[in-house]
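Exercise: predict the fold of this chain.
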Amino acid sequence: MGEKITTTLIVSDSGPLISFARAKKLYLVREVYGAVIIPPAVYNEIVVKGKDKPGAEEIKRSNWITIQEPKNKDEVKRLNLKFDPGESEAVALAQELTATLLVDERIVIKEARSRGLKITSTHMTLERAKTKRLIKSVKIELDALIAAGFRTTKELVTELLQKMGE
């Protein structure tokens, strides 16, 4: 946690976007990062397969989320042996663009870090939102995300809240 994001490009997996959307907090992702790039498989997971779920319409209509396909199809195929299509495309695309990857799944984070990618997550998004004074309390926002279905660990929550002085 706490890595500095030095690039302005953010490629997102579906998990964090869905978590923020379910809690009606998707605007925080926009306010923290400005713009987000998603690969087609992430768009498909959220907007097509999840068409009646929270975030589908917001993401479909958003002007701050762009869809970009990874060029390296062989790399996506290799990653598909380990991950779902959205995660695979997100890792491949983040690597191609030298972007920061917005993801929460530990196994995907481990893979992305092994490739030298910068990582951000739902927790780190809340941390940045508080640092930018977009939110008053990480705990309040995190509680809302958890109530809406965001999964995390007690250890990560404790670490984040201690770091943020809450």
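Check your answer against the key: Residues 10-121 form a domain with the Rossmann fold fold (CATH 3.40.50.1010).
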